Amino acid sequence: MLAAGALATAGLLLAACVPATQVRVPSPTPPAASPSPSRTPHFAPGAARSDDRLFPELGDGGYDATHYAITVGYTSSGKAITGDAVVTATATQDLSNFALDLRALTVSSVTVDGRPARFSRAGDKLVVTPATGIPLGATFATHIVYGGVPKTYEAPGLGTEGFHSYAGQQAIAQGEPHVAASWYPVDDRPGDKATYDIAITAPVADVALAGGVLTAKTPASGGRQTWHWTESAPMASYLAFVAIGRYRLHTSTHNGRPVLVAVASSLPTSVDRVLAQTPRITDFLASQFGPYPFDAEGGIVHDDPVFGFALENQTRPVYSAAFFRNTSTSYQTSVIAHELAHQWYGDSVSLAQWQDIWLNEGFATYAMWLWTEHQGGASPLQTFTQLYNSGKLPKEAPGRLDRRHIFDNTPYNRGAATLEALRISIGDAAFFQTIRAWAAQHRYGNGTTDEFIALAAQISGKNLVPLFTAWLDTATRPAFPKRLPG
Ligand SMILES: [Zn+2]
User: Fold this and answer.
1) Which of 8, 101, 105, 394 is placed for a possible disulfide with 414 were both Cys, Cβ 3.0 to 4.6 Å?
2) Biggest CA-to-CA distance, the chain
């Protein structure tokens, strides 16, 4: 994630370098215990909330979603969508009922394993009561038919997010952490990752984009066609997106993977040329972080003026056109490097608690520092030193942010500074071994700050608690780091 305004600020702070808790997190939902064959189930409602410290209202308990098959229909005559979703999940308790996040849209029918289920709405929750209880460990499929006009969210520090229609009935669904429930029923917590099939039916004059691999385009009624996308790697719910409208498409292959780059047709073709550098930037990042984790890559630049940010949507980041207006090419490629770095740190390795956002944004900002050096600019040490001495190092503790501030400058610049402080403390070899091992060991899963600290300590053989306490948990400027002895 990058907000256009926030990055402009960062660029000013670091003009020469960058173009343009002690309370720790629990692990993601533990695997369900194996039910005993002779056990008597005790059915109870799943918790209609999650254990996230900052956004407990997002997400639900009692099950683990494993796959979403979503079909969204869109016409050029209005802003309403039709939706059809099959959510496959495994019960992590004996369930008498369970909830999904779903905002505003009207539900017309729900079945569980093919049998009609009762359902009700409670705020942004859809509560489903199956005909019979679902025992712990059972896999079940919930089929929801829904539709209506999606309602966006207004998020502090970020603005509008969610499913949004704009100019001439184009549409885009994008945001963090709020977006998924505005267009599909979901267990909307990053700890519950799942694979996705997303089919979008749109007028034939438009393109309909999502993440992953395009598997088919099929004719549909009313002068429309359906675009079928498959994301086969587990994905956090906020990383799923759709973009419908008028785009120039460019397809190619890179290291055997399909590359799809799309630029809103209203934008100049100079944007296409910059976005075409995506494979080259991906290669550089892979040289730093290890193998690229997914089976597709690319990027999309839209022209919806309401969304002023870029987001690391899995396999295919989605960028606001604002990043490409009156900015230098080096700035633009730095933004691309940021979002592509999230494919390793944020997408493949996802946070389990939103308060760990520095694990996403600190790493992606550090990737910008690495990219700047690769382009012949300042080294990360030089960038860090200038930031440290400028008096502009954020004073807030990135490990203790509240929900209003998770996309402030703090997790970005102080998060990246924390990584450079680690690098100075343990040396280049242990540092790069740590961040590569982090990507490898938690690939397609989730990770916590505690787990990252433990990994760095294990690889370096050093006590890193004082370092991370100072940089992540203490709201003052830490001492300038130095190489730890031993
Ligand atoms: Zn980011």
Assistant:
1) 394
2) 71
Domain covering 12-26+353-472, topology? Neutral Protease; domain 2 (1.10.390)
Q: How far is the CA of 411 from the centre of ligand 1 (A)?
A: 9
Residue in this structure with the two tokens 């066609």, named with its chain if needed: 225
Residue 315's region, left for phi above 0, alpha for psi from -120 to 50, else beta, is left
Residue 346 Cα to ligand 1 midpoint, Å, equals: 8
How far away, in angstroms, is 200 Cα from ligand 1 center? 27
Q: What is the pLDDT of residues 310-321, one digit of tens each?
A: 999 999 999 999
The pTM for the full model equals 0.94
User: Environment class of residue 148 by beta-carbon count within 10 Å: exposed (0-12), middle (13-18) or buried (19+)?
Assistant: middle
Question: What is the chain's Cα-based Rg?
Answer: 22
Q: How far apart are CA 458 and CA 422, in angstroms?
A: 13
**Chain Cα centroid distance, residue 396:** 23
CA of 17 to the centre of ligand 1 (A): 18
Rounded distance between C-alpha atoms, residue 297 and residue 261, angstroms: 8
